Write the structure tokens for this entry.
Amino acid sequence: VDPHMRSRLAMRGPQSVGAERRGAGRDAAELQRVQQGDSALSSSKLGVDLYPNSDEVLFNLGYFLIMAEQTEAGRAAIRLRLGQHEKPLVYFRRAYEANPNGVMAAGTFLDLGRRWLRRPEMLGAARDFINAGLDLHPKNASLHELLGDLMLKQGQKDTAIENYRKAYQLDPKVAKGASLEEYVAARTKVN
């Protein structure tokens, strides 16, 4: 969080809004996003401090860290609110160890990853999140396929193909009856 931005926004009076309506609207939206991010980080960290074995609370902190790490303002908020902290994967791993069948199931990573795949501004977060899911569920063919889709969307065709091949190797049913080469060709055309 840029502390100077908060000061500038706080000092703007109603008289400046008319002159800078569009700029102020963007600044207000940014301030709201920053405040919500600060709140999410702070409350998630407090939750982990109070309930260190809650899979849902651990997941939330990891999730909000991934989201915040996508922007400079978010990284600044992390430094300000959390200081020293673990990487998101550490919180995901702890959540998985606390309850392997809870929120850390592969389906959580698939659901959020698929949603983020459709939003260009979320591709970085999606990559981090899906990779965390694969770290916990390395034999999940659908996660490898989803990572392939993401890599293809980011222009990394060779890495996408490696993931499609891995998905097929783990579970040929992902290809819905197609051969490996047909499956890879279809995935690389679709995306």
